[in-house]
Amino acid sequence: MSVRDDILGRLRRQLGRTDSTTLAARERVEATLALRQTGPRAAADALLDRFIERARAMISSVDRCATEAEVPAHCADWLRGQGLPTTLVVAPALAALDWAGAGLDARIGAATGDDLVGVTGCFRAIAETGTLMLCSGPQSPAVNSLLPETHIAVVPRQHIVADMEAAWAEARRELSAWPRAVNFVSGPSRTADIEQTIVLGAHGPYRVHLLIVG
Amino acid sequence: MEVRSMHFVSRVRQRLEDPELQRNLKRTRGRNAASRAAAVAAFPDFDAVRARATEIRASVLRDLDVWLERFEQKAIERGATVLWARDGDHACELIIDIARRHGVRTVVKSKSMVSEEAGLNAALEAAGIRPVETDLGEYILQINDNEPPSHIIMPVIHKSKEQVSELFARVHGTAPKTDIEALTHEARAVLRPEFLGADMGLSGGNFLVAETGSVAIVTNEGNGRLCTTLPRVHVALTGIEKVIPTLEDLATLLRILPRSATGQAITNYVSMLTGPKQAGDADGPEHMYFVLVDGGRADLLGSEFEAMLRCIRCGACMNHCPVYQTIGGHSYGWVYPGPMGSVLTPLYQGLDKAMDLPHAATLCNQCGVVCPVSIPLPDLMRTLREKQVERGLRPWSERIATKLWAWVAARPKLYALGTRVAVRYLRWLADGRDRIQVMGVAPGWTAERDFPAPAAKTFRELYAERRRGGGQ
Fold it and tell me: B-chain residues within 8 Å CB-CB of A110?
């Protein structure tokens, strides 16, 4: 007997399964999947303010601009203001913006270990916790928000949703194929392993800058 | 990992007499409890979320066989390979096979408690494959001669920055530094090429989502993301009890896991990984494997210990346990310390191998109160104590003492006489002070603490006096 069948067989014995209780269990499982019951949630109002407040609490910096066309200029100003490099790796989803026009040296594609600034969009942003939801795919490599020391995310205002449940609902509706990786990012990488002292930039970005558009 | 839980008492004595460890434990004592309390207070109706989380975990266990089949089917549909492991040793064999098949030389690891259970690092090394721990705490332990972790989410809570500094200077050959930020960034610089060069990434799994066939992992450092994004092979190693039904259930559980663990509303990174790289994807592993481990879990289903399978490994029980906070995690002698470990170690390793663990508690129920999935930890420890007695595993002196106690307690007059004598004896031992330093008949009780001296009269005597007084 395979180990799989042995383990499942033992689970069934422990549960005292018969054909009829197994059938009932399968029906319960299908019903649970169909129902998608949500748990208790906090009230969802003033999404934009809440998102900004929570994102800052997670040590992301937040800036705003009116239109997507203004994104490269804002990025350039912010990077120069911080004394950071102006060479970027930009997710293909944002390839159409005029990066060179803002004086930025942008490469479109996936980040490598040498890239210092990575730019991404986001699928949704979650107001409850100030979190970005990034779905990996040809247009949005997962590495751009992970390998560079600085991560800039473009967050369309209408993509801010109340909570993770709302984000899942929109993913089910909008995505034709479920992405390999759904990464939720809440501020820069950090650790508190040594004497519970928080240090930013444990392995991933030292800083996360959110540019809300609209 | 080798089980050393039978040497609990001698280990506790060593830990209590270790001034450096006591200093380190004292530095963080109570801090996690305070963070959790603040995070829970800031969330509207945390109790309702806790109740829902408990229900999700309990409902999965009622139909665990079917949920696992369902998870497996979805994972396979997405191109992942699902393997089943009888126990830790078997899991190591399966993982070494995967590594050999893909020509793997280096494995970067994100924290996995099951890999500690299985002793995976030693097995990989024996097979000529190099494991690299990437969680900062786990990395510190690995380069310190594979020291075991002392906490499930803060593995080096027992070390000071000076100890880490000394270790880094010795192993990295760098100048000693006691600035915690500099130490952290030194580890980052050492580990970065490992992430970029490794052939295989191994992660644990906080949850397996049946709806999508995905593994969800939760980290603050981002090492989990790096291990599961960059190498060409990703192996997720988890226990069979980790499955949950839907994405909505994941959202609920993520509201209670970080709050219970570190007092965070969410960890910096939560990743949901589904299958290998797809056509057109710029990144991600080419191969994805799940290794689902039994290791004693199946036997708990339907037993009086089933509630233990709800555990989501947050560590809140140890963060609130007065015993854990005084003796540290290494005293418990296996992967899981604190109250959850005092239940899990005897269940997974055998009652006879962890005789003292179910007794390593004050039964104050702090752990039961904070457990986010409502596991009645003190009740489970008490049940384990009963099992030890039933199986004749307790020492003869204790067996006779409890029998004698039961016999006396069933005879009120004898009991009254006995307690009168005992109270006077204890008062004599206290010799006018309010503490007894050495207890005559059970010196073990007072080896590490004083025993409070009793009141001058027994409760029954006082009660009788007051009744007389009231009648006058």
Answer: 282-283
